[in-house]
Every structure is written in C-alpha cells, then in structure tokens.
C-alpha cells in the first residue's frame, strides 16, 4: 500500500469511518466517485464521521487549520532535498515552541495530518537529530501516545540526553 | 523529587527543563498532577521560561475543567524528577532516634512499605505494557593473524562461521599493519542480553592456527 493510502486508512480508523478505495492519479489521491485531492478527501472523511470538533472551534481556528492543511500538501509533501526537509522541520519546531497542539488547545485536523506526514521523516532520523527539533519531538511524542491516532505505526523513541545541556 | 520552590528562579527553571520534552506532568494527558502544580504557581512563568509558559497556558485553557482532571492529588513536592534539594527535616532526627520509642516509627514505616509496594506494582504494570526494546550494540573487532602467510580470506570465513542467537555479522575490511601483514576489521551487531564481548573473543581465538589475537576496536550502543 502506498504511503498515502496507508495514511487514509489510519485516519479513517481514527475517525471511525470506512475510507473506501483510494487510488492515485499521479501524486493526487482519489477517492473513487467522491473526492479528489488530499485535503478534499480528508475533510470529506471528517464530515462523514461527524467529528466536527476537529475542524476548529471558531472561525479563526478553522482558518488556521485550513492553512496548516495547505502547508502539509504544498510544503511538507513537496520536499525534494534533505535540506528542504531540514528547513521544514525547523520551521515546525519553532512554531511549536509555545504550543501543545497546532491550533488552539485541542487536537485538530492540522495535528492529525502533519502527524501522519512526519512519521516517515522522523522514523528515519537518529536520536540526536530528533533532539535537535525538541519542540516538534515533544509534540509528536505526545500525539503518538494516543493509540487511536497512531494506529499501526510503530512508536518512535525520543530521549533527551542531558549531555548537551 | 519535586521542582523545589516554584516561586523561586531555581524552581521555575527546573520546571522549564522538565517541560522541554513533555506536554504534561505525568503521561500524555492532563491529570490532577497538572492541576496541583498549576495551582502552586503564583502566576504565569516569565517568557524566559518558554516551556513552562507553554504548559501553563495550555492548562489554563481548560478553565474549571481543571478541577476534575483524573487522578489523585498529591503534595506538589512529589512531582517532577529534578534533583531539587530534598525536603528539610528528613535527616535531622534520625541521629537522635537511637533509643527513642519505635511506636510511631513503625506505623510510618508500614505506610511507606505499602506505598513502595504499590509503586512497584504500578511500575511493573507499566513496564509490562510497554513494547520491550531490545538493546543492541555494534561492535568492531580487530582480528590479527600470525604472519603475512595467513590467508585472511580463510580467517574471515572462519569468523563469519561463528553463529549464535542474537549475533549478526556485518561488513568487514582488511587493514594493512605493515610488512605485508593485514589485520581483519569486522563489524557485528549483537543483542546485549545474549552475546558478550568475551564470548566473541573466545570463539574467534579458538581458530588458533590462524588468529593471533582479537581486540575490540569499537563498541557502540544502538
């Protein structure tokens, strides 16, 4: 199963809906007969699950969540070089410095989507590299302990070495 | 245990370091522990304690829900894992208690014992739930032959023929020592619980016709 299909599989089990068959048109995921495009399918699934709190509490939060979903597709998924990935991670890290969740004080679609996107990136990193993006690691570590969210992804291990402090 | 005096600079900075890689005091969801420490703070931590401040703001956002966080409330000094100065009064009276009555001491001891048992049980339960991580190490061995006539290919073949549970051979190379003699550097990955370096050295030196000595050139935990 390609990464994106796996991701939708995880997300739809988290939401408690069935995701149907996802195919790919180039790099664009397609939900047969219903929706095309990553964000479209994600929102479609969320609406189906009636789990609307994931969209944000008020219009500011909703806007911010939309912005992060866009970031996920336009920025995070289009990293072509190591350096791109590195820059994105640092960007996210500094954003999360004073936050527990991406938007507001609750779990939202932004967290879910970026969490899934980061699994592949973070799992290929060493302890030391993960520690360099400490805020991001803290956030990720927090989310991965929600088992419904993690589904069958393996638990990544984060450790803070006191040596560097 | 404890963060020290949360109104002092030391207390705040230990709280700050504690939260650098955590979102909540205990585990991965808000609990009574968060409420207790939150209430022990006089006000929001200053912005030079960014981690503590982030946590503070997050807990603050729960408003009155905070009072119903799950878990039992313990004194604020029992949270955290920094090495803040131990509570006073613990050690002082020990010296004078030599001939004193033991009555109240026993009670306290029994309570302590019980608490300890409970903690151990909790810890065991938590440990059992966690997927066990197998500790592995990567070891670089240097195998030195007797002279330049030793067939290094033969040496390598023999070394690789050692098989054991938890042992995997990896890349190897020949490093010239001088006068046409090469030593064999070979990398292997072992599971710490199953294989020791002594075992490896012993097994390799068994090929005594070929091998003069074995050294550990590198040892890394994975």
UniProtKB/TrEMBL annotation, chain A:
InterPro entries: AIMP3/p18_C (IPR053837), Arc1-like_N (IPR053836), EEF1E1 (IPR042450), Glutathione-S-Trfase_C-like (IPR010987), Glutathione-S-Trfase_C_sf (IPR036282). Residues 43-163 form the GST C-terminal domain. One of its GO terms (cellular component) is nucleus. Pfam families: Arc1p_N_like. Transmembrane segments: none annotated. GO terms for biological process: positive regulation of DNA damage response, signal transduction by p53 class mediator. This is GST C-terminal domain-containing protein. It comes from Lottia gigantea (Giant owl limpet).
From TrEMBL, chain B:
Pfam families: EF1_GNE. GO terms for molecular function: guanyl-nucleotide exchange factor activity; translation elongation factor activity. PROSITE patterns: EF1BD_1. This is Elongation factor 1-beta. Keywords: Elongation factor, Protein biosynthesis. Residues 136-222 form the Translation elongation factor EF1B beta/delta subunit guanine nucleotide exchange domain. Gene3D superfamilies: 1.20.1050.130, 3.30.70.60. SMART domains: EF1_GNE. Belongs to the EF-1-beta/EF-1-delta family. GO terms for cellular component: cytosol; eukaryotic translation elongation factor 1 complex. Catalytic subunit of the guanine nucleotide exchange factor (GEF) (eEF1B subcomplex) of the eukaryotic elongation factor 1 complex (eEF1). Stimulates the exchange of GDP for GTP on elongation factor 1A (eEF1A), probably by displacing GDP from the nucleotide binding pocket in eEF1A. Signal peptide: none annotated. Residues 73-94 are annotated as: Disordered. It comes from Lottia gigantea. EF-1 is composed of 4 subunits: alpha, beta (alpha subunit of the eEF1B subcomplex), delta (beta subunit of the eEF1B subcomplex), and gamma (gamma subunit of the eEF1B subcomplex). Interacts with elongation factor EEF1A1. SUPFAM superfamilies: eEF-1beta-like (SSF54984), GST C-terminal domain-like (SSF47616).
């Amino acid at each position: 199963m390609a990464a994106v299909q796996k991701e939708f599989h995880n997300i739809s089990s988290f939401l408690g809906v069935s995701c149907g068959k996802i195919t790919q048109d180039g790099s664009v995921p397609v939900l047969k007969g219903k929706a095309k495009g990553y964000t479209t399918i994600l929102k479609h699934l969320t609406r189906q699950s009636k789990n609307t709190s994931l969209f944000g509490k008020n219009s500011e939060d909703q806007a911010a969540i939309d912005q992060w979903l866009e970031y996920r597709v336009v920025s995070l998924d289009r990293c072509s070089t190591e350096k791109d990935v590195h820059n994105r991670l640092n960007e996210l890290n500094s954003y999360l410095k004073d936050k527990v969740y991406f938007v507001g004080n609750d779990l939202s679609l932004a967290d879910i989507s970026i969490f899934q996107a980061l699994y592949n990136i973070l799992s290929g990193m060493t302890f030391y590299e993960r520690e360099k993006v400490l805020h991001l690691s803290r956030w990720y570590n927090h989310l991965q302990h929600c088992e419904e969210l993690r589904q069958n992804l393996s638990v990544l291990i984060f450790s803070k070495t006191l040596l560097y402090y | 245990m404890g963060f020290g005096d949360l109104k002092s600079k030391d207390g705040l900075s230990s709280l700050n370091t504690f939260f650098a890689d955590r979102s909540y005091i205990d585990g991965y969801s808000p609990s009574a522990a968060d409420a207790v420490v939150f209430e022990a703070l006089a006000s929001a931590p200053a912005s030079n304690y960014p981690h503590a401040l982030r946590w503070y703001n997050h807990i603050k956002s729960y408003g009155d829900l905070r009072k119903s966080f799950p878990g039992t409330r313990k004194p604020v000094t029992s949270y955290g894992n920094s090495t803040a100065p131990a509570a006073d009064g613990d050690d002082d009276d020990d010296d004078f208690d030599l001939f004193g009555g033991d009555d109240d001491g026993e009670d306290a001891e029994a309570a302590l014992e019980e608490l300890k048992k409970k903690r151990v049980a909790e810890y065991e339960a938590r440990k059992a739930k966690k997927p066990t991580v197998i500790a592995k190490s990567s070891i670089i061995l240097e195998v030195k032959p007797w002279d330049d006539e030793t067939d290094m290919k033969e040496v390598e073949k023999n070394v690789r023929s050692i098989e054991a549970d938890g042992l995997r051979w990896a890349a190897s190379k020949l490093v010239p020592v001088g006068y046409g003699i090469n030593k064999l550097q070979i990398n292997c990955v072992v599971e710490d619980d199953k294989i020791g370096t002594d075992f490896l050295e012993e097994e390799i030196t068994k090929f005594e016709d070929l091998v003069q000595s074995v050294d550990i050139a590198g040892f890394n935990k994975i």
